[in-house]
Structures are given as C-alpha cells and as structure tokens.
C-alpha cells in the first residue's frame, strides 16, 4: 500500500505518483470496456453501506481509495459498456475526459469573458459552430449548461420573461411524449400546472398539430395566451420527431416562443439523414442540445441555443456589487445568459475533442448509430413475435411483444439478466415497451446482432 502524504499542493514527485496511479486505473478501465458487461452482478448492500462511510480526518492509502472507487463502479449498470442500450446512452469519449482534466487543472473562470477572454472565445467558437450547424441567423447565440434539463429550464424562463407579469395568462404546449423536464421546468419557473398543456400525439407519437391548434383556441377563448410551443427533435422514448415546420408556423401566428427539444436528436443534424429528418429546425427560437448525448461526451455538457442572443440576457441578466468592475465586452458573459454564475470550463470539453478529431468522425459515428438502429428495426419488425411501436427515425428502436405486456416484460427482464446488454423500458399508449437505444461510440454491429439474436432466442423460449 502506498501511503502518500500529499499536501493540498503536491510537489512534482507527488504529482507523478498520483498521476501514475490514476492513469493506470483509467487505462485498466478503458482497456476492459470492449468486453465489459452492461450491468453488475454483485449484490450492493454491504458495499453501499461501506461506501456511505463519511471521510475521516486522516489520509488513506491511495490504492485503497481507488479500490473503493472501483467497487462503486461495479454497481448498477455500466453506461460505458458497448451493450448499454438503455435510456439515452452516452459512452463518454476519452479526449473529452482529458479536456475535463485540463479544464480542472487550469481552473479558468469562464462565467464572464473579462476573466478569461481566451477560454470564452474558444467556447464561443463551439457555440457558433452549433448555431450555424442548425442554420440559425447571425443574431444567434447560446450557452453551455449542465444538460438538457437545465437547458429546457433556461428556455422556459426565457419564454416566460417575454410575457413579463402577464405570464400568469401564458400557456406552454408540449406533446405527451415530451421530456418530463419541461413540466418540471415550468414548475420551477413558477408557472402553474394548469398553464401547461400536454397535447396528444399521432400514431407516430409526434405532436398532433390539429389538437395543438384546438387547445390554443380553447385557451384563447378562456382568456389565456400561448406563451411557448415545444417541438421534440427526437423524443426520449422512441426518437420521434415532431413536425417542426408546422409547429413553427403555429407558434409564429400565435406570437408564442418556439422551443425545439433536441437534447437527444440534435447532433444527428451532422448526418445527411438527420438533417433531412430535422428539417426546419432552423426556424426555432431556441434549441436544447445535449453534447453528452449525441456528441458522445461525458456527462455534464448540454446547452441552449437561441435565435436572438439578446433574449437570453433579457431573461437572465443580474449583477451584484462585487461584479461592478466587470464591463461588457465583445464576447458574452455567460452568467447573463443562464442560471449559473461559476461553471466548469465546458467549452474546452467540447472544443478539445472537436479539434483533436475534427468533425468527420462524429458524423461517421452518428451515421453508424442510424445504421445499427435501422438494421435492428428491420430485423425486429420481421420477427412475428414483435411489433415496432412506431417507425424508427433516429437511433432508438421501440417495440413490444405481440403476445402482450406480460411477455414484453418477461423478455425485457431476461435480456437484462444476461448482463450482456442493458435495456430500459417505457410505456406507450398504456403498453409496456422495450427499447434499444444506440448512442455509444463503443456500440457496434456485434452488439446489434447480439441484441436481435437474444430477442429471438428468449421469445422462442416462452
Ligand atoms: C435527456 C433528455 C433531456 C434531459 O437532459 P439531461 O441532460 O438528462 O438533463 C431533455 N429532453 C430530452 C428529449 C432528452 O432526451
């Protein structure tokens, strides 16, 4: 056991020791991923009780500390396994992990551009790349946030802010398939539950635009006003894409804010197929993106892009006297564009991988995810035991057993019990639905084939 007596500011030798141990740990971890099971087999009880022990006054040997972390990693499911197909996966690419390390070591303040104009310029370069990817105009801007939930909250606050105190009469419309963070955001933003409409969906699980129009008319008749219309650019459950152009037209004619939740689907815009399917996303007033989903980055990096960057500042500007010497500059102050003041250097975590790899490998990886989902959807729809719940538009295949919910659930549990794959389920139209979500740089055709094979074998064993 190496007992390091490391001060808060380690010297070169101590840094080297720390670095060697941590890098060896990371190396073992990454090298084992290709064959890593998708979930843990161990019972967690005693382990969790031990991990819940509060830190002590005295240092512990580094090996022991890292062993604890390894123990913690061997619980639950493994989001970095190639067989992890649950929820919206995110493998977390290595170069972004390195950026996380460099960002923390250099610990530059990127809340305002006065403190580190260079790092803010790098982050702005990433924002500009994103706004141009989505075809937003020159006036566009945005802010990187911790994820899609906070991005949706920031969008809701921005839409509400345009209504001033009249927001009490303003209504938010989103389909029943929209992410729950939208209702949650409305609640956090002080918008009453009876000002949020969940609009029914079509058989393809996209917003029913006639129902949307009808809901707006009914609200107008009751003296209310449409404040925000949400389009899904890839729902979490099934990857369904709302008719964005039609929603944009309704929003425009009603004077409502048009928000597109592209937390999952956004970066498929890099591919030809994605660009076709996300057509008209450039009409949005705001777009939620999650780089920790469709850009394969580690957790903690999402963002909100807006058509007119001044709208964010109008909704989020706020100063304390301790900020009196912070002048406005050419580059933005992100603290004026969202709820956060101090934040990690998220720009670097996006910038470094894009610089090191170039954009092409991201496009290829996303194309590959579309291929895997397309292939799996074809195979599953050809099996008499299963039916797809809707067309597969992005990289989620949602399906159920023809024999009914009990059978769907049995198959779901049996697949996860193999630990080779990990699936999550959902409910669509009151039915238990299984999903295969392809969105990890480690997931390949072998995994897709194995998924289809397992489904066939398990359903035959009924
Ligand atoms: C994942 C997701 C969110 C929430 O994003 P987090 O990064 O998990 O907070 C919002 N909307 C959609 C469509 C999502 O898939």
UniProtKB/TrEMBL annotation:
GO cellular component term of the entry, any: cytoplasm
Pfam families from the xrefs?
Answer: Pyridoxal_deC
Instruction: Give the GO terms filed under biological process for this record.
Output: amino acid metabolic process; carboxylic acid metabolic process
Task: List the Gene Ontology MF annotations in alphabetical order.
Answer: carboxy-lyase activity; pyridoxal phosphate binding; transaminase activity
> Which UniProt key words apply to this protein?
Aminotransferase, Decarboxylase, Lyase, Pyridoxal phosphate, Transferase
**Post-translational modification N6-(pyridoxal phosphate)lysine, affected residues:** 293
Per the entry, which co-factors are needed? pyridoxal 5'-phosphate
Q: Which Gene3D superfamilies match?
A: Aspartate Aminotransferase, domain 1, Type I PLP-dependent aspartate aminotransferase-like (Major domain)
Q: Which residues cross the membrane?
A: none
What InterPro entries does the record tag this protein with?
Answer: Aromatic_deC, PyrdxlP-dep_de-COase, PyrdxlP-dep_Trfase, PyrdxlP-dep_Trfase_major, PyrdxlP-dep_Trfase_small
Source taxon at top rank? Bacteria
PANTHER family documented for this protein: GROUP II PYRIDOXAL-5-PHOSPHATE DECARBOXYLASE (PTHR11999), MIP05841P (PTHR11999:SF70)
The record's family statement is: Belongs to the group II decarboxylase family.
Its recorded name reads Aminotransferase class V-fold PLP-dependent enzyme
Species the sequence originates in: Eiseniibacteriota bacterium
The lineage, from the top, is: Bacteria, Candidatus Eiseniibacteriota
């Amino acid at each position: 056991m190496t007992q390091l007596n490391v001060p808060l500011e380690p010297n070169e030798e101590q840094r080297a020791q720390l670095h060697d141990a941590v890098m060896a740990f990371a190396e073992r971890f990454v090298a084992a991923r290709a064959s890593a099971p998708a979930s843990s087999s161990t019972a967690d009880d005693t382990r969790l009780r031990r991990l819940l022990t509060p830190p002590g006054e005295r240092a512990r040997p580094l090996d022991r500390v890292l062993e604890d972390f390894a123990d913690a990693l061997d619980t639950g499911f493994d989001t970095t396994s190639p067989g992890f197909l649950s929820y919206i996966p995110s493998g977390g690419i290595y170069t972004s992990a390195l950026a996380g390390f460099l960002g923390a070591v250099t610990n530059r303040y990127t809340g305002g551009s006065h403190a580190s104009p260079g790092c803010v310029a790098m982050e702005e370069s990433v924002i500009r790349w994103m706004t141009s990817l989505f075809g937003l105009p020159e006036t566009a801007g945005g802010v990187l946030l911790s994820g899609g939930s906070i991005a949706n909250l920031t969008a809701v606050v921005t839409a509400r802010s345009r209504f001033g105190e009249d927001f009490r009469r303003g209504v938010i419309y989103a389909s029943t398939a929209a992410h729950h963070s939208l209702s949650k955001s409305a609640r956090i933003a002080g918008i009453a539950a009876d000002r949020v409409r969940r609009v029914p969906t079509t058989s393809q699980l996209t917003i029913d635009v006639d129902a949307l129009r009808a809901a707006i008319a009914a609200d107008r008749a009751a003296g209310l006003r449409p404040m925000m219309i949400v389009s899904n650019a890839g729902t979490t459950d099934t990857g369904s894409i709302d008719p964005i152009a039609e929603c944009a037209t309704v929003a425009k004619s009603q004077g409502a804010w048009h928000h597109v939740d592209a937390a999952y689907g956004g970066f498929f815009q890099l591919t030809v197929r994605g660009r076709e399917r996300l057509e008209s996303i450039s009409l949005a007033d705001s777009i939620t993106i999650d780089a920790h989903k469709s850009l394969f980055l580690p957790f903690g990096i999402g963002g909100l892009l807006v058509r007119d960057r001044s709208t964010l500042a109008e909704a989020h500007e706020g100063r304390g006297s301790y900020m009196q010497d912070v002048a406005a500059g050419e580059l933005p102050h992100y603290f004026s564009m969202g709820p956060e003041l101090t934040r990690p250097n998220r720009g670097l975590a996006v910038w470094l991988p894009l610089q090191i790899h170039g954009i092409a490998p991201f496009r290829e990886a996303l194309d590959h995810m579309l291929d895997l989902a397309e292939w799996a959807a074809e195979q599953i729809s050809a099996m008499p035991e299963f039916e797809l719940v809707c067309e597969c538009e992005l990289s989620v295949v949602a399906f159920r057993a023809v024999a009914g919910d009990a059978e769907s659930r049995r198959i779901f549990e049996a697949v996860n019990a193999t630990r080779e794959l990990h699936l999550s389920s959902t409910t669509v139209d009151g039915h238990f639905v299984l999903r295969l979500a392809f969105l990890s740089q480690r997931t390949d055709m072998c995994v897709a084939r194995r998924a289809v094979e397992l489904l066939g074998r398990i359903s035959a064993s009924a």
